[in-house]
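Folds vary. Our protein:
___
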Amino acid sequence: MSMSPRIAAHLNKVGVNFDLVSHAHSRNSMQSARMAKLPPSQIAKAVILHDGDRYRMCVIPANHRLILERVNAHMHGNYRLATEREVAMLFDDCEIGAVPALGQVYGMPVSWEVEFNHANDVYLESGDHEHLIHLQHGAFMELMNGQDHLHMSCPQDDRFGSIVH
């Protein structure tokens, strides 16, 4: 598989321009950036949250960590990280750990990190561990149109300890 069938259908339906970038097998978004020789700040990592009733996808740069408290404060919620089992159930046409950052395709609201406002290019996991979807800035913004955006992440740094998830 090179791309989730649902993602491929959605991108074709919306009509945005994209390319597929092949890379050596990776286990996570940071490795995908390394294997594809791309800046990790341009790789959109999907983090799935659950509050007991609803799921939400947060889209952050691969080299960032989600600040769960900011999401909960902004959403007036009590979100936690979804389990690997929940993620596998929700994204059944994707390999575990290669979830495309387009939750709306799966009926899930999306919150995206405002830092992507400044990215000329954005790369999404495609649903497998060997391809990325390359979008130019305008195409990414078109796909994120109507989705919530906020500052909810920070660069990975052990100094932040438990406040960063």
About this structure: The chain has one domain: 5-155. DSSP finds five helices and ten strands in the chain. The mean pLDDT is 94.
